[in-house]
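Review this fold:
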Amino acid sequence: MVKPLVIFDVDGTLCDTFSVDDRCFCATASKMLGVRLDRTSWEGAPHITDAGILAWLWERHVGRAPSWAETHAFIAAFEVSLRIEYGRASEQFRPIVGAIELLDQLDTHGWVYAIATGGWRKTARMKLRAAGLSSDRLFASADDSQNRQEIFRLAAARAVSGLAQPPPHLTVLVGDGTWDAAVAASCGWAFVGVAQGLRASRLRDVGVTGVIPNLMNGDEVERVLSSCKPFVRGT
């Protein structure tokens, strides 16, 4: 039996860490570059990944790509910032409601699941563990590529490589941003959005019909996953 595949993003999808991650990244970049930055400062980045945004910021403010040493110094400082925030207020790293239970359910109901992120591997693992989630199936990250599409394609390939089965008949990407929907469309995958409020509205604006507020009702989430069709942006 060929098992279907679901790929989860991390921030905002499995971990309720979108805000703390954003603040810490912004603060680290501002300090290292000596400029004041906020989230809107990198909306124009060609790749919405940690590595892609870092390269874009360095080109804008330094006139070149970051060196290996600068990149690793940034990752280290970013991780320290996240750990300080965890020590100050650990509730900033809670899981999305229902995430832990859903992953257990998918394992027993014949799904293969993988985790991928536009963040770096080290900080993603830290956030997953802080949220009480295993990082064992974190199959691709910004350490692998600046390109979000390449990251998620790689995660899909790694997830099925050891299963001795043909490619899955259904692949669903579960994410919280329009950039995740764009990846699903480019890969020919289905897409389910996990979002509320303005973020949910933005997903619906680009044609996402399967938008759920959280992962609490595992049976309902599984029904939504099973009924998905390949996502076509704007339809």
In short: The longest strand covers residues 112-116. The first helix runs from residue 18 to 33.
